């Protein structure tokens, strides 16, 4: 990390802007800054990235006249409650440890893990990595206000993740989506799965299997929505130490991933991928990321690098290299 103090200062400034802009799009400024810093970006690169990214953002102003929500669960999914949630979480983090606040909050937030196309989750994970209380408060408030649950039956079925997607992908392929962005299409698919009473949960699920499946899906399709499931799974691994009920959390993550895939309308074929595994050199790919301006490329390369270090799955290198071209 080149300059953690610069990162902290810029994250404080980023928190003075609303996390959403232009009718529902998410700002990536704090996440990109954290990823760049972790990959060794210079102070100048961090500052340049910040100042080039804030023109379209809206300052939130003082919270002095804002009344905090009384409890996390009371105003979930209400975008208009962002400032009320922000004040609530700022107060919480002034009085309790980061660990205590996260352990208390996440059970309420996990059923809406798809919030803002996984950006609430991702922003929280990066805030934890940066160890920034102010940014953690923003991320938790953002996730709360954009909370997106899918009320799908909890019954399980003795099928693999692949089998479930093979069975359900025709629903997305044939669906006539209304105009909108990712969260709108995911909402439509969530409603469809609910109304059909579809069974989507496997009897067994673990994080490594889910991450490998999500990685495979993105490698095969190179779809923008699916990119968020890869970075979302990486983010989930960062918040996992603060989650008591891992099984419950994984079910919510899988639900969101499945809905995200179906919302693309893409066909799924369980294609076998054969890639030679050896020690791939990420150095030139990271160098590309440090010179990139596209926030999604920067975050994808960072997530891929982090996950490759843990799993040595060559597909992480291949999707990072593809993004860097």
Number of DSSP helices? 15
Give the end-to-end Cα distance, rounded to a whole number of Å: 24 Å
Give helix and strand order, one letter per element, not per position.
HEEHHHHHHEHHEHHHHHH
The overall pLDDT, averaged over residues, is 96
Helix share, percent: 55-70%
Low-confidence stretches: none
Query: If you compute it from the alpha carbons, what radius of gyration comes out, rounded to the nearest whole angstrom?
Result: 19 Å
Strand content: under 5%
Strands, total number:
4
Sheet with most strands: strand arrangement: 1-2
The coarse silhouette is globular
The major pleated sheet works out as: 2 strands, antiparallel
Structural class: mainly alpha
- Give the oligomeric state: single chain
Q: Could you write a compact summary of the structure shown?
A:
The protein is mainly alpha-helical. Helix content is 61%, strand content 2%.
Plain-language structure description:
This protein is an all-alpha fold and 325 residues long. Helices cover 61% and strands 2% of the residues. It is built from 15 helices and four strands. Strands 1-2 form a two-stranded antiparallel sheet. It has a two-stranded parallel ribbon with strand order 3-4. A hairpin with a 3-residue loop joins strand 1 and strand 2 (25-26). The chain is globular. The two termini are 24 Å apart. The model has no long low-confidence stretch (mean pLDDT 96).
